[in-house]
């Protein structure tokens, strides 16, 4: 059977490996692999009679497709944690995840890793994409986050318990953790996700628990990642052999040094914080939440700049899936944030969003770079992201998406639709008091809503102000 060939001609190639851009360069693809880059990439290299598709990339940038290492396809663009965990049936959650996957791919994100989600929907979606039944980025997936009673995702009171649809599963003993690892591996996950403390102010898993989980997952051929915002958790995760770290908002110099020596990547995942801090007022995010996320960003910037200077490898991750970070809208903004809050250059940021994400796809050394022998996940961009990284945020400038050597054709009408999870039954965002309506001490004027205090907005960062002060940094 003859091979299929694709020739991308005369573009400016940004290879994803950190090399300077190469103008007027062509890329030749055979099947799903890049075979030639540069002067030898011509139509003359294609055997006579074999099908060839040509793309004129003159004046455009040719680069690897982006890899988002922190993308939650089961979150359903929810506005509350209850919407993520409680509302919408498993069947509808699955269909909505499949619908949203095409939006992610259209944004030039050709690979994602889902570090936790509802049921084993991510595993099913991964297989449907792989078999080309569903249009979406190539994918790896964890199951539900493994949590303790003191860590992220054990949201609800003990009287309620952990709902079956929760993104987390409770395991307070080593045996329980090992049982859950074995069950998730049996059900086809690619990686295990641990969830340490929500805010980084203490270490929710013991050193031994982290190591036992990591060792068992590795024994079973799987990777492990962890939600770790504070220095103590990051340090313990590195010592336990966890494969990559999510967040690292507050890190001491000693922790950063250990992380850098280990060679393990850090996925800072700044987008959720920045979108709420910068744009949250436009969608009604409470003032304490916006202010808390801005404070966390400032604190994170200090840690990330020191980590970058120490040589820590960073990876694009966005926490996409919330209403403030919807699918296919903001993935590339993380590159701009890595430049602003970690000090990366444009080429380093692109490398964080391409080559460095290959590990999370289980394809380290095979994807994320424009070079012979690499898998042909490629985008053609109208603009120069090295000069202005923000061009990647405009989907209209992602002119061509190539996945596994094939040009992707999108249903643009379908992409314009929204299909979120069922909404929570909210009655208001504050209390309708007499003084609010008729005026009184502390009441706002002109019918404006008051700014909510922290007790009205207990969310991920709503009470960070006092928690940050006690965060462990040793």
UniProtKB/TrEMBL annotation:
Domain Amidohydrolase-related residue range list: 61-408
Superkingdom field: Bacteria
PANTHER family, sorted: ALPHA-D-RIBOSE 1-METHYLPHOSPHONATE 5-TRIPHOSPHATE DIPHOSPHATASE
Name used for this protein in its record: Amidohydrolase family protein
Record Gene3D superfamilies: Metal-dependent hydrolases, Urease, subunit C, domain 1
InterPro entries in alphabetical order: Amidohydro-rel (IPR006680), Metal-dep_hydrolase_composite (IPR011059), Metal_Hydrolase (IPR032466), Metallo-dep_Hydrolase (IPR051781), OTAase-like (IPR057744)
SUPFAM superfamilies (alphabetical): Composite domain of metallo-dependent hydrolases (SSF51338), Metallo-dependent hydrolases (SSF51556)
Native source species: Pseudonocardia acidicola
